[in-house]
């Protein structure tokens, strides 16, 4: 029975560790070009200027409509004058539905409204942000990575083409 309990606890522990590793994965390529630099992983952005959220993995905005929160691919017309590249974004990780705690986020981050002090991914010179589809260097980044992935190592010999295993005719 002790062995069974140990095995059960080990499996549960491995599952928890695996889930934690998934939560800290890098998702720079999924982040929009208007997202702020400095974050390798983002679940949500809170946009205090318009009291909305952006769900990065699902690429949808979440905004209040009466007593409901609506999820859409594009913001409605009432937000058309918002410049997301200059609006302040608050990164929220670890909260699967931050809009359900909207009062908390309004209170904590409402003071960031009208601040324009973040560099968007689009304007970054750091190579890691070239993966973002909205970055001006994305096409070159994509071309470089396709070449790299198709032909093995760029500029080097591909050791997978040789058979270095010992055999009857090889010593």
TrEMBL record:
Taxonomy, superkingdom: Bacteria
Stretches for region Disordered: 109-171
Show which residues constitute the signal peptide.
1-20
Q: Where is the composition biased (Basic and acidic residues)?
A: 109-147, 154-171
Q: Does the keyword Signal apply?
A: yes
Q: Does the keyword Signal apply?
A: yes
Keyword tags: Signal
What this protein is called in its record is Uncharacterized protein
What is the species listed in this Swiss-Prot or TrEMBL entry?
A: Chitinophaga sancti
